[in-house]
What we know:
The chain is of the alpha+beta class. It is 31% helix and 33% strand. It is built from 4 helices and 6 strands; from the N terminus they run H-H-E-E-E-H-E-H-E-E. Strands 1-2-3-4-6-5 form a 6-stranded mixed sheet, covered by helices on one side. Strand 3, helix 3 and strand 4 form a beta-alpha-beta unit. The longest helix has 16 residues, at 67-82. The radius of gyration is 14 Å and the shape is globular. The chain starts with a helix and ends in a 10-residue tail after the last strand.
Amino acid sequence: MRADLERLGRYDEHRVRQRLRDSFSTRHTSIIMTDGELAGCVTVRPSEGRQWLEHFYLAPHRQGQGLGSAVLRAVLERTDAQGMTVALNVLRGSAARGLYARHGFVLESQDAIDVFMVRPPGARADAHA
C-alpha cells in the first residue's frame, strides 16, 4: 500500500499508522498463515448493513501466487451464505482493483484518492479469478 500512497503523493507514516490503529478490529480480523508462516491478514467488519472488507494485506513475497484470490473466495463464500453485500475501498491505480473486479466487485463511487467498490451477494466472478 505504501507504493500506491507514494504514487498518489499521500504517504505519511504517522497518518497510515493512526488509520490502522483507529480502524483495526481484532474481533473481525483473520490472520493468513501459509507454510507455518504469517502471510497476511484480512478484516471483514459489519457496518451500515454491509460487510466491509478492510486491511487485506499479504506479505510481498506471497503476492501473485493466487493466495489473495483464495482468501477472497473464502470470504465471499461466507458473505454470500449470509446474504450480505461486501464493500471496500482501494486506492486509485492500485493493482488490487483488478483482483476485486475479477471477483464480482463493481464501482460504486470514487474520489481523487479512493475507489469504492461493492459486491452484492452471489455476484458472478470472472472465470479467470
